[in-house]
Structures are given as structure tokens and as C-alpha cells.
């Protein structure tokens, strides 16, 4: 009857045992490779695991330093699992998900996921006109839809039109992230408070999105270490279990320029969420703290709807009354997120989720035991439910 | 990417004399631009089940047929959404900023939404329509602009200027 048995579940089978990061800044002198090594070694030290025990790696296809270079530099042993996930910030949680699957199925025992990026001092990707991917750039870039802010701006304007979302709703998101960054000494915006007046008078980037609707441009690297739940209990910190994982590529979805299906405002979050909750022991109402991918403020209301915290079209209203602040219905991006801590393709949302469940956040949600972490909405995405 | 397209991109085929980016069509998209050069807005359509699809692709997601044809549309649509990009932008776009980028839902095929620019006339500048004239739902029709280097791009005019 072996063939008829249900497949092994990932639920709580693995845990994040270590996290590490470099400093975050507009410009760091060291190379992406060096920053990656520093973050990974810090994460291994945090876990109390020797680099020679690492046998699995996962990162993003946009990661410039590959696992061969990393393994060689940090002194990893024989590596038996490695993989990369595409779609920029959509891949963040999937790196952990892939390691969890590898470890739970016995393909490896100590996994490292990481992202190192010099986006603060490096070139903006959209300025490279020679890397015009024919699909879909032939349909968009000639008309001046050049940057991610323009692409998401089109969805944001439509969302405002259909559901009465306003700039004040987007400001609620920007403010919650900034307030948390003001509590986090590692955040790029630690000593830079944001006011409504600053937001409302800020320069436009792509109207209806202003400067403060856009994430930061950051140099920095982060990493985490994944092991079996059993092994994690012997590590230095309280284990943070990977409770449920999912990726999401909806039918007929087209990343960033998701304009060519029945309902462009129902993005990858909806697809990932259905799978994520299906394999979880709890639901959206039980989430103590959320780390939701925030390259642009409108992604938050869209994700709140997608992950089931409210109904379709209610995401903007959900942000009212301090709901996203500490003590609110759903404390959000408690390290400051991509908008105000650092933008490293969402990896800081994973490490902050771990800190919250260890009880060591700089803006700690008292007694938090469950955390949702999401990757980019608007692109093929991924998500994690973490629990302590 | 095929070798031909790589060559086009590498030889700078993406840049027009006016500094704006020219489309770099792939094999599936090339017919769209060939028809546009003749002043026709056509979309790919399954030759077996009749479903229209965009962006163009090798086979039909509804019936998996590899047979397709390009069906003429009325060239009419409505603005589904729009943005007004401001710098930092590529220099030729920054020179016209803020300009508009509209997303037009085709009257004949509402699921097909084309990115383009709302202009006062086919050959007018990207910022030739004042932003206060742009609204979601406004009816528009296609116009065809030939660039100095012979590319044709589809643009949009307000039905009621
Ligand atoms: Zn068909």
C-alpha cells in the first residue's frame, strides 16, 4: 500500500534556526559576493552551525553570486541540493519553501537561503535598454511604461477607481512601515519620521504613486539557515517552524504587466493563499503579525485581500484606524519593510518574521506566535506561514 | 530569444531616431506590428475555436490548437487605467514628462488591454493631451504613428476630444 500513502507533509517539519544580515545603506563598499558571504556566515553563527555542515542552497535567479562561489568561499561541505527561483521579489519565500521541501524529503540537512544586492549604488535595471525582453516589453516599453512603478501604477489607479481607495490609504501603509523603521536601528529610515504632509506634497514617480509609495534603493544582504525541526531544537535560538508554504502563478497571469486576463486585480496572492491556508492549522484571523511584500504601497491592500484578511475591494479600508500599527488588527512589516528598512527583494521580511516569533523584534508584537510572510504581489509569488 | 532578435537588440534596434524605444518584436508578436504598419489593429485568434488571445503565443490556451489567424478589430476601446510617469526616466521620455500611458480595453475583446499613449493626433507628442482630459472609461480609437525610422506604433485618440 506504500504507493497509496499520502505524501509527506511539510507542516512544521523544518525550522529557521539562524538569520543574518549586513548593514543596509544606499552605498556599501563591498561586493555583492562579499556581502552574501557575510550575511550567510552571520546566519550560520546565529544558528550555531558550522559552515562545513551546509549541504543545500536556495536563492533568486536574479542573484548574481551563484552557489558555487558561495560554497567555496564559506567552506561548505558536499552540497546535494541547490536551486533558484525566478520573478525577482516573487521568489523570496520560495527560497525557504524549496529548502524546506529538500530537507523534509531527505535531500539535504542544512540549507541556506540568501539574497545579496547592490541596488542602492548599482544601476536601475529599467535603464538598460539593451535587455528589452521581447515579451512583454514589445507591448509596453515603447509607450514609456518603463519602470515597475509605472506598471504597478496602472493597477493602482484602477484599484482606486473601482473601490474608492485613496492616497490616504496608501499613506497608511507607508506610515506604518516608517513608524516601525523609526524603532529599528538597522533600518535605512531609522531617524527619518514621515508625516502626512510630507507624503501628500512629495514628488510624483508615476502618478498616482509618489516617492513614498516606492520602496527604498538598498545595498545589503540577508540569509537564513533552515534545518529539520528536530535539529532546530538543539540550536541556539527558539526554533521558528515553517508551518505552510506556497507559490502562486495564476492562470493566464503575466508578471508585472498583468493586464491580459479577466481580472487583473486578482493577482498571484490569491493563488498562493488558497494553497497556503489549505495546508495550515490556522487561518488569517489567527495571524499575530504580517510581513507583506511592499515594493509599492498598493501591493498591501491587494495582498490583504488575496490572503483573506478582508474581502475583495476592502483592502484599502482595512488599513484605516491604525490597523497596521503595533496594537492594531494586523501589525505590518515590523522592521520597516521594503518601504523603510531596506529593499533587498523582500528577504528582510523573512528575517523580521523570525525575530518576531523569537520575541526579539525592535517593534515586538507582544506574544506573537504566528506570522505570515509574503513575496511580491503582481509577479509569480510565494508565501510562508511561520509559527513558534 | 531567437538569434534574429538578439541581433536586433544588440545592434541597437530598440532605439529610435527620436530617442524613444522601438518595439523589439518576437516571432509571435511580429504580425501585430506588420499589420499596424498597414494601419490595421489586428489581434491573434485561434483558427479552430475562435478565441482571441494577447499577448500572441504559439498555441491556443483554450483548445491547444497551433493554427492561428489575425483578426481585424474595430480599433475602438475604452481607457481601463492610466499613469503619468515623472522622472527619473530615459532621457527622451523625461523630455516629455509628465506624459500619459494608458491601458485600453478593446471594444471587440474586453480581456485584451493594450498599453499605449493618448495623443491629440497620430503624430503628436506623448504629452499632447492635458492630464485633466484623461479619465477611466473614456472611449478611444486607434491611430497609427510612423516613426522616423519606419516603425509603426499604435496610439490612441479620444473619441470626443
Ligand atoms: Zn482554440
Automatic annotation (TrEMBL), chain A:
CDD domains linked to this entry: SCP-x_thiolase
NCBIfam families for this protein: PRK07855.1
Pfam families named among the record's database cross-references: Thiolase_C_1 (PF22691)
GO MF annotation, one: acyltransferase activity, transferring groups other than amino-acyl groups
Record protein name field: Lipid-transfer protein
PANTHER family, sorted: ACETYL-COA C-ACETYLTRANSFERASE, NON-SPECIFIC LIPID-TRANSFER PROTEIN-LIKE 2
Domain annotation Thiolase C-terminal: ranges: 263-380
InterPro entries: Thiolase, Thiolase-like, Thiolase_C_2
Automatic annotation (TrEMBL), chain B:
Gene3D superfamilies the record matches: 6.10.30.10
Listed InterPro entries: ChsH2_C, ChsH2_Znr, NA-bd_OB-fold, Thioester_dehydratase-like
One of the Pfam families matching this protein, by short name: OB_ChsH2_C
Residue ranges occupied by any ChsH2 C-terminal OB-fold domain in the UniProt entry: 70-145
Residues covered by region (Disordered): 1-21
Domain of life, source organism: Bacteria
Start-end of Polar residues biased regions: 1-10
ChsH2 rubredoxin-like zinc ribbon domain boundaries: 35-66
Cited SUPFAM superfamilies: Nucleic acid-binding proteins
Protein name per the record: OB-fold domain-containing protein
Amino acid at each position: 500500500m506504500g504507493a497509496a500513502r499520502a505524501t509527506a507533509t511539510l507542516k512544521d517539519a523544518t525550522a529557521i534556526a539562524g538569520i543574518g544580515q549586513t548593514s543596509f545603506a544606499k552605498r556599501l563598499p563591498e561586493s555583492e559576493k562579499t556581502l552574501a558571504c557575510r550575511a550567510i556566515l552571520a546566519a550560520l553563527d546565529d544558528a550555531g552551525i558550522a559552515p562545513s555542515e551546509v549541504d543545500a542552497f536556495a536563492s533568486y535567479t536574479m542573484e548574481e553570486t551563484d552557489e558555487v562561489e558561495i560554497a567555496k568561499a564559506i567552506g561548505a561541505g558536499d552540497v546535494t541540493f541547490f536551486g533558484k527561483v525566478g520573478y525577482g521579489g516573487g521568489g523570496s519565500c520560495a527560497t525557504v519553501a524549496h529548502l524546506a521541501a529538500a530537507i523534509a524529503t531527505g535531500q539535504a540537512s542544512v540549507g541556506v537561503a540568501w539574497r545579496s544586492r547592490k541596488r542602492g549604488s548599482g544601476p536601475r535595471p529599467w535603464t538598460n535598454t539593451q535587455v528589452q525582453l521581447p515579451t512583454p516589453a514589445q507591448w509596453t516599453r515603447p509607450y514609456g511604461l518603463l519602470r515597475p512603478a509605472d506598471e504597478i501604477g496602472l493597477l493602482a489607479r484602477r484599484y482606486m477607481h473601482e473601490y474608492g481607495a485613496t492616497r490616504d490609504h496608501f499613506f497608511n501603509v507607508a506610515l506604518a512601515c516608517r513608524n516601525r523603521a523609526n524603532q529599528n536601528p538597522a533600518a535605512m529610515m531609522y531617524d527619518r519620521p514621515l508625516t502626512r504632509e510630507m507624503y501628500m506634497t512629495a514628488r510624483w514617480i508615476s502618478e498616482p504613486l509618489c516617492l513614498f509609495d516606492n520602496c527604498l534603493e538598498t545595498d545589503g544582504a540577508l540569509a537564513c539557515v533552515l534545518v529539520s525541526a528536530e535539529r532546530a531544537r538543539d540550536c541556539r535560538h527558539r526554533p521558528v517552524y515553517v508551518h505552510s508554504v506556497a507559490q502562486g502563478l495564476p492562470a493566464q497571469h503575466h508578471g508585472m504587466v498583468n493586464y491580459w486576463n479577466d481580472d487583473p486585480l486578482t493577482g498571484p496572492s490569491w493563488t498562493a493563499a488558497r494553497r497556503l491556508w489549505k495546508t495550515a492549522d490556522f487561518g488569517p484571523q489567527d495571524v499575530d503579525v504580517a510581513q507583506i511584500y511592499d515594493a509599492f504601497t498598493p501591493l498591501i491592500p491587494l495582498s490583504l485581500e488575496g490572503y483573506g484578511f478582508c474581502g475583495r475591494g476592502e483592502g484599502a479600508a482595512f488599513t484605516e484606524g491604525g490597523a497596521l500599527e503595533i496594537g492594531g488588527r494586523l501589525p505590518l512589516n515590523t522592521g520597516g519593510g521594503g518601504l523603510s528598512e531596506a529593499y533587498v527583494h523582500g528577504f528582510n521580511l523573512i528575517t523580521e518574521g523570525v525575530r518576531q516569533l523569537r520575541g526579539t523584534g525592535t517593534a515586538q508584537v507582544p506574544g506573537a506566535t504566528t506570522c505570515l510572510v509574503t513575496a511580491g504581489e503582481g509577479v509569480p509569488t510565494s508565501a510562508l506561514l511561520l509559527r513558534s | 530569444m531567437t538569434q534574429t532578435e538578439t541581433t536586433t537588440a544588440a545592434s541597437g534596434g530598440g532605439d529610435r531616431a527620436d530617442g524613444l524605444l522601438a518595439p523589439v518584436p518576437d516571432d509571435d508578436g511580429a504580425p501585430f506590428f506588420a499589420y499596424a504598419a498597414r494601419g490595421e489593429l489586428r489581434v491573434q485568434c485561434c483558427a479552430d475555436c475562435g478565441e482571441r488571445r494577447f499577448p500572441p503565443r504559439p498555441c491556443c490556451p483554450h483548445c491547444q490548437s497551433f493554427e492561428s489567424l489575425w483578426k481585424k478589430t474595430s480599433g475602438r476601446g475604452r481607457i481601463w487605467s492610466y499613469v503619468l510617469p515623472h522622472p527619473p526616466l530615459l532621457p527622451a521620455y523625461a523630455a516629455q514628462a509628465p506624459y500619459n500611458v494608458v491601458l485600453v480595453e478593446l471594444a471587440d475583446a474586453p480581456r485584451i488591454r493594450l498599453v499605449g499613449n493618448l495623443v491629440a493626433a497620430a503624430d503628436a507628442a506623448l504629452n499632447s493631451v492635458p492630464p485633466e482630459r484623461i479619465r477611466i472609461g473614456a472611449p478611444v480609437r486607434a491611430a497609427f504613428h510612423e516613426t522616423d525610422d519606419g516603425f509603426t506604433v499604435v496610439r490612441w485618440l479620444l473619441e470626443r476630444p
